[in-house]
Amino acid sequence: MAYTEEELKKELETKEYEYGFYTDIESDTFPIGLNEEIVIAISKKKEEPEWMTQWRLEAFRVWESMEEPNWANVHYDKPDFQNISYYSAPKSADPNKTLDDVDPDLLEMYRKLGISVDEQKKLQNVAVDIVVDSVSVATTFKKTLAEKGIIFMPISEAIKEHPELVKKYMGTVVPQKDNFYAALNSAVFTDGSFCYIPKGVRCPMELSTYFRINQAGTGQFERTLLIADEDSYVSYLEGCTAPSRDENQLHAAVVELIALDGAEIKYSTVQNWFPGNKEGKGGVYNFVTKRAICEKNAKVSWTQVETGSAVTWKYPSCILKGDNSIGEFYSIAVTNNYQQADTGTKMIHLGKNTKSTIISKGISAGKSQNSYRGLVQINSRADNARNFSQCDSLLMGNECGAHTFPYIEAKNKSAMIEHEATTSKIGEDQIFYCNQRGIDTEKAIALIVNGFSKEVLNKLPMEFAVEAQKLLEISLEGSVG
Amino acid sequence: MLKIKDLHASVDDKEILRGINLEVKAGEVHAIMGPNGSGKSTLASVIAGNERFEVTQGSIELSGEDLEEVSPEERAHKGVFLSFQYPVEIPGVSVTNFMKTAINESRKAKGLEDMPAKDMLKLIREKSELLEIDRKFLSRSLNEGFSGGEKKRNEIFQMAMLEPKVAILDETDSGLDIDALRIVASGVNKLKSKDNAVILITHYQRLLEYIVPDFVHVLHNGKIVKSGGKELALELEEKGYDWLKQETAV
After folding, report:
1. Under 8 Å between Cβ of A22 and A246
2. Can you give the residue ranges of the ABC transporter domain (chain B) (predicted)?
3. Which of A289, B78, B126, B142 is most exposed, with the fewest beta carbons within 10 Å of its own?
């Protein structure tokens, strides 16, 4: 039978979040609340050097004087920052052990997540760093990478082992006081990944980090710092999941990418934090600051597939500082039920002959709101800068919204900026056409959505493109009206 | 094979089909003609199971099975094919990918494994040659930017791939130039067998010169007002529909 609006709604309701399980691992969790003592305690717990503690405290003091931004097209109850625990570590974590020593319960959790560490290690040629709650659990392939001089490790270790690199680059792209959430992250970040690719080295495998919030009432504040030295190349992927919980969980990450002269970074994200239930209860607040700086002839591509979180506030950006540098942003953002996403990018053209491309695909279903917000800024010295932006929205049903907020600031006459935007709706006639060929409605939606998102899916590394496609299907099951 | 009894159907409470009776046996070709608004396309949609239309009375049987509770995709799995008058565009989905999905969904419904890639390629090669389709065409997004002729040829290509029991061709001839018409018609003729049936919905006699029907029915005001052999089509061509309208009014 073809679907009526009612049937569709019902089916949508029965769709459950696939990753909604909680693994009972003994955790070492700090009391709730945030003050200087907590910041110092986190630093101490991580056995950090004094300069790091001071850096955190500076951030904390700035944060105290700041207010939460409210310009985004999202509405939610502001988190009570004194009601969150800022540190939660699986008790059995020990940074020095290898994968073989990892707690079998943890490994079971990865298995449920569909990321068999062993499998990925062997089959996919992917080096994985996994962060559960606040602590990085295992980094695979460390040795293989070390032979090339590549450093890939939890940031907490990097602070101790490579302080000169961390000190030199951390906060240079996203300063402590950049914004409310970045300041908060700078004060309390507990782990994350650090990566350095030496001059002229092409990283032979995909690097990958999986983030997961497990413990109730904790926030996850991870920090990623990736430095691609001159003429190097790296492709990096991060994936995120969280168990389903009634209360909102806070996730405020910072990602800084540094692409030195001639370097290329591909950074892909598959974000599937718990989106909340069908009534819009629970879900993750995803307030993330991601920014890259491109030196001469460097290139950074952000690719994101955003299907999770109750509220998303995220603008992976590129500062095209060097001449001839290139910034790209490819995004698929899916919202369903009561999800809200305000996401996009900023392309700041400072150097000459800089180029940027923005392809954004927003898919809204249920009662969700999906906004694209982007800024293309051409500085007065950026001669011959080029930008191409394309923002497409696909709507399902009559109760969701799609919004586009493109900002363009050009201060150089030679700039060439193009912007295209479309909005379409999955039509009954498209569904019937597919039905008539023997394709049921679920599959038809998946087919149409995948077709719509193809330009972006194609940008993902092969093995993750398949995963992302599946994720799109799951997120939108039964959501056409 | 297909048995339609006293079929009444309406859309938004407006009755369009008012008691259709039609029996189509395996190996037969039926043409349904009639003026605009007589209900030809509605009949095609209702047979295919489009739920925009409500069947208020009567029945459709396929090989003895009542289709009332059968969904459009299940009807397709059972061998009903509709060549659309206005095929829709699905951006980003290639003709090949679409066909692969359609075939494998049908196979899944029958408890079969996905068709091996090798066989799929062979089938595609075979059928695209039959319809003189350029292979490059198959990697294009479904119907996106296709000319009228390309869309119709693509519909018949899909028919060739899916090998239906009952194929309904809704105004497949409209928008085709004479060469394309010849190719499409010869494709349909090659696909025709003693085990399947074809229903041609058309305004004009032109298509029937290439695909010769066994029966011609004239639809008017949601009813079949006259049936006959292929000569009826010629008569219609000559006299138009007005004489029939008058005849039935009496």
Report:
1. no
2. 2-246
3. B126
Chain A neighbors of B92, CB-CB under 8 A: 450-455
Strand ranges (E), chain B: 2-11, 14-24, 29-33, 54-62, 65-66, 80-83, 90-94, 141-142, 166-170, 197-201, 215-220, 223-228
CB contact under 8 A, A440 and B73: yes
Among A430, A439, A441, the residue with its CB nearest the CB of B101 is A439
Mention every residue, 6+ apart, whose C-beta is less than 8 A from residue A80.
Answer: none
Least Cα separation, residue A432 to chain B (angstroms): 7
Per-residue pLDDT at A96 exceeds 70:
no
**Which residues contact residue A205 at a Cβ distance below 8 angstroms, ignoring those fewer than 6 apart?**
A125, A126, A127, A141, A144, A145
Structure-model confidence comparison of residues B43 and A83, the more confident one:
B43
Q: What fold characterizes domain B2-249?
A: Rossmann fold (3.40.50)
Q: How far apart are the first and last CA of chain B?
A: 34
- pLDDT of B218 > 80? The answer is yes
Q: According to the model, what pLDDT value does residue A13 have?
A: 41
pLDDT of B194: 94
How confident is residue A245, by pLDDT bands cut at 50, 70 and 90? low
| Shortest Cα–Cα distance, B102 to chain A (Å) | 6
pLDDT value of residue A21: 47
DSSP code per residue over A199-255 = TT-B-SSEEEEEEE--STTBEE-BEEEEEE-TT-EEEEEEEEE----SSEEEE--EE
Please check whether residue A375 is in contact with residue A407, taking contact to mean a CB–CB distance below 8 angstroms: yes
- Rounded to the nearest 5 degrees, what angle is found at the Cα of A85, between the Cα atoms of A82 and A90? 180
* Lowest-confidence segment of A86-100, A357-371, B150-164 by average pLDDT: A86-100
Task: Find the residue in A nearest to B76 (Cα).
Answer: A438
Please report which residue ranges of B110-250 form alpha helices under DSSP H.
Answer: 117-130, 148-162, 178-191, 206-210, 231-239, 242-249
* Tens-place pLDDT, residues B149-192: 899 999 999 999 999 999 999 999 888 888 889 989 999 999 99
Q: Residues 127-166, chain B: which have Cβ within 8 Å of A?
A: 141, 158, 162
Q: Give the tokens for residue B154.
A: 């693509």
d(CA A274, CA A475): 11
Residues B187 and A429: their CA atoms lie apart, in Å, by 26
Q: Domain map of chain A by residue range? A: 5-476
